[in-house]
Amino acid sequence: MMTRSRRPVVKAALAAIAGIALVVGAFVLFVVPKGSGCTPSVENPQWSVARQWDEVLLDAIRRDIPA
Length: 67
Hints:
Helices cover 58% and strands 0% of the residues. By secondary structure, it is mainly α.
């Protein structure tokens, strides 16, 4: 059971985490470019659905920026 002396610390930590989540969410919503969807760069009408999905995934891997 949590003692009364730790409750304000826990509340402050949760408030800080919520604030960080709000800032990150706003950043993603307003700063990240809207047209950054992963679509295949080359389309071929003869490709199967599986090949189209593979191309989409490979394109996403190519666009990913390593941390």
